[in-house]
Amino acid sequence: MHIKIIKRFLLILLPFLSFSQNNQLELWYTKPASQWEETLPLGNGRLGIMPDGGIETEKLVLNDITLWSGSPQDANNYKAYTFLPQIRELLLANKNSEAEQLINQNFVCTGPGSGSGDGANVQFGCYQVLGDMTLKFDYKTKSKAINYSRNLNIQTALASTQFTIDGVIYKREYFAGFGDDVLFVKLTSSKKGKLNFTVKLDRSEHFKTVNSDNSLVMTGQLNNGIDGKGMKYKAKVKAKTADGSVLYTNNTIEVKNATEVVLYVSAGTDFKNQNFETVVDKTLDAALQKKYQDQKKKHIENYQKLFNRVALNFGKSTKNASPTNERLDAFMKYPDSDTALPVLFYQYGRYLSISSTRVGLLPPNLQGLWAHQVQTPWNGDYHLDVNVQMNHWALETGNLSELNLPLKDLVKEMVPYGEKTAKAYYNADGWVAHVITNIWGFTEPGESASWGIAKAGSGWLCNNLWNHYLYTNDQAYLAEIYPIIKGAAQFYNSMLVKDPETGWLVTSPSVSPENSFFLPNGQDAHVCMGPTIDNQIVRELFNNVIAASTKLGLDNTLKSELEKRLKLLPPPGVVSPDGRIQEWLKPYKEPDPQHRHVSHLYGLYPAPLITPESTPELAEAAKKTLEVRGDDGPSWSIAYKMLFWSRLKEGNRAYKLLKTILRPTLATNINYGAGGGVYPNLFSAGPPFQIDGNFGAAAGIGEMLIQSHAGFVELLPAMPDAWLKEGEVKGLKAEGNFTINMKWKNGKVIEYEIKSAMPAKVKVKVNGELKEITSSKL
Ligand code: FUC
């Protein structure tokens, strides 16, 4: 059929596409949670609440994304650069272990750094739980509860608990307001005056709870790692009832004989807000003036402005009716019968993004916004050697583009700190960040050479920043990020050294993130020159800065210098004698061939340096690399492998990894090897809970449906057989700010539509055929 006729036909047809997402987008259970990883996460991008649905006692864990211990610090060793020549000499002489020793003595951060990942009481600090709100009920009967259920509806961002005791139906409804910036818990009894309970507010340290101002108020100050006078916070709870009585007494709230109660929780910290106590009070007062029903309506409306941009359907699902924990078990046996679970998991990823970050605030940390401890694993920080980047990978394709902006803001604030670090360690221009950062601008190397000297953090962050531009074409944004990406490129440009064996320009010293190798003498080493990931990141960054300076008409001299330097960089990948992409400059043997990081495939994903079309040999070598790495690991590692296989257009293999990530677990031990999965609440488990697996898997599903990194939009590039029978997608995005709707049947795209703000030419690969079309107007 002629292309114009097809388009006309599509335009008539598309409005009639029906969008049932072939299940309710819901998590539900028939029992209260017995551990935190079973509780249900709610969040409005700043405040979080996780109810456990307890009958006699309900614990609700509260969070505020800004609540960190620690403080800004200068942990640069300003003499470090004087040791650089010696470290580099040792590496050139293949004395990697001696170089590592010297780095540990003179080239890491000063002080305890991250505190070995337990940094709550050092200056690096730690993301912490805000507190626990505990409700204790008195039902005035010995009868047991029946007909119990609790759920989380991700289409409305509402959770609820319901059960019956002695014929009285008790209901609780919870949400983290997308209208009023407070947390809501509404309790009702079906018969008059049956609600009797107390409310407590506490945490394990640094708190004081009192009754004041007719409310329950918890305040405290966390440790800054110096004199204890760190971040201050305040949480305030008030109850509103129509009948019964409310007493603010004994540092609790006592509710008696009520039929309907709404608890309002307002909270905040002094992070960039000295006036926070007044703000907490005023926000609460304003919320109390309004009607609950109106607030709930506004909440749903605002949430759905983001959530409803995308709809998915992977065809008929026959095993989706059971409670979520049982459904996960069934999925292990009959994955192909529940095509709605991957849809739920994808949309849950989008839900978690919308709930854990907001424009103008912080990006999601290692746990998003949800933590129940004062010492969260790895400080709940921002890891820059894959984790924080992965937290943002699903956003552009998933039509939540603006949620990338908080990361841009964080990175922008890191730059002045990173400039000091660049000077102190490398006497270099520009700015650098190594492996970890916090809300206090940490850019120094970590405290141990083996992982802390990785220096691609700043370069990798710039990939995320650039990607947002590719998807939005936003020129003002490009102008804003240009100094950031330019500064990162200037750093690498001024510190690269020549490898005498190959003549290539490489970083030195560095590591391939967290991995080690055997030296020819059998010693286990980490520190090296020019690990593949650095080479790929520098190449991609230079490419992007050249493209940006051309677009903006700026910095011609720098641009031509980078163009020259690009020719001297190592290629995007070197194939080792055994056919894999080499992780280091030399084909070292590895102590752990299944290591969780697969850093040397950065060029395959997220960067577009290796593709089956443009670099077929490297794509083959990437496959071999992944075969040897295996399909297991902590959940983020499984998700990353899912993305790699999607880029290699191997849908069934990507699906196998998705099935692996959906393995049910309750384990919370810190795991670095095989064994990732999901908890009953679908939080991804390293273990422990780490949100990157959720976001990485959502990105992986997006990449199975649409890819656009190679100069054209490809529809269904990596679909597993299990989803090919029929399905629909609405609202996914491609590079160039295109919005995509499509429908498929029996493995073929049968309808599609590509829209943009203004009609534009776009190359699209549909059912294996590449063509150029004009997009229709949004
Ligand atoms: C990196 C990973 C670990 C963990 C930690 C938070 O160090 O290697 O598996 O995800 O980040």
From TrEMBL:
<feature type="domain" description="Glycosyl hydrolase family 95 N-terminal">
    <location>
        <begin position="27"/>
        <end position="273"/>
    </location>
</feature>
<feature type="domain" description="Glycosyl hydrolase family 95 catalytic">
    <location>
        <begin position="292"/>
        <end position="705"/>
    </location>
</feature>
<dbReference type="InterPro" id="IPR008928">
    <property type="entry name" value="6-hairpin_glycosidase_sf"/>
</dbReference>
<protein>
    <submittedName>
        <fullName>Alpha-L-fucosidase 2</fullName>
    </submittedName>
</protein>
<dbReference type="InterPro" id="IPR016518">
    <property type="entry name" value="Alpha-L-fucosidase"/>
</dbReference>
<feature type="domain" description="Alpha fucosidase A-like C-terminal">
    <location>
        <begin position="707"/>
        <end position="771"/>
    </location>
</feature>
<feature type="signal peptide">
    <location>
        <begin position="1"/>
        <end position="20"/>
    </location>
</feature>
<dbReference type="InterPro" id="IPR049053">
    <property type="entry name" value="AFCA-like_C"/>
</dbReference>
<dbReference type="InterPro" id="IPR027414">
    <property type="entry name" value="GH95_N_dom"/>
</dbReference>
<keyword id="KW-0732">Signal</keyword>
<dbReference type="Pfam" id="PF22124">
    <property type="entry name" value="Glyco_hydro_95_cat"/>
</dbReference>
<dbReference type="Pfam" id="PF14498">
    <property type="entry name" value="Glyco_hyd_65N_2"/>
</dbReference>
<dbReference type="InterPro" id="IPR054363">
    <property type="entry name" value="GH95_cat"/>
</dbReference>
<dbReference type="Pfam" id="PF21307">
    <property type="entry name" value="Glyco_hydro_95_C"/>
</dbReference>
<dbReference type="InterPro" id="IPR012341">
    <property type="entry name" value="6hp_glycosidase-like_sf"/>
</dbReference>
